Structures are given as C-alpha cells and as structure tokens.
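Revision sheet: structure tokens.
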Amino acid sequence: MAETIADTRRLISKPQNLNDAYGPPSNFLEIDVGNPQTVGVGRGRFTTYEIRVKTNLPIFKLKESTVRRRYSDFEWLRNELERESKVVVPPLPGKALLRQLPFRGDDGIFDDSFIEERKQALEQFINK
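Predicted:
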C-alpha cells in the first residue's frame, strides 16, 4: 500500500511593495453610523444619525458621502430590501416601545446609553 506524502512547498507569490501592503484595498465600501443628534420637542422629537460612506467602487458617483437619517429611514430601507431582493435581510434593532412610555424616570429612547446602543446596532445592520 502506497503512503501519501503531503506537498509542503510554498506557493509562489509576487513580491509585495509598500503600496500593496499599506494602500487601500482594490475594492472597498465603508459605512459608519455616528454623531447622533436629537432634535424637536414633545411628540415631534426624534434622533438622527450621521451615515458616512467611503468607497472606490465604480458604481458610486461620489467616493465619499455623508447624510443624516433617523430610525424610520432604516425601517424603510429594510422593507425595500426585503421586498425587492431575494437575499435574507438582517433584522433591525427593536423599536423600544417600552422605552417610550411616560413616567419612566429616565429619557427613554432619548437616553444617551440607549442612543449609543441603537447607533451601534444600526451600524451592524447597515454593514451586514
């Protein structure tokens, strides 16, 4: 019975220069969610998030772009993706209905810690 010997030779690769090692990847799309701002008063109060996009993909006209969006805009995007595509769309962070109840003793959905948690969850959603 013949014994099989594994091939342990190294793959031949081209030498890497500094630009290859430390330059931007050939194709990239970076999306960051940050800088939350709460605006309005009373029932018209809501929080917006800054969405920053950087890319070198040729399909995009702008290489860098920044917009402000609120949670309901993410809901709209998710619904459109679900309706128009055949891929599984990740879930959004919850609506936090209990945090909207009056007399909670805190700022509810406008509490800094909640806004930070939601910002991180929205960034995870948009990058999936």
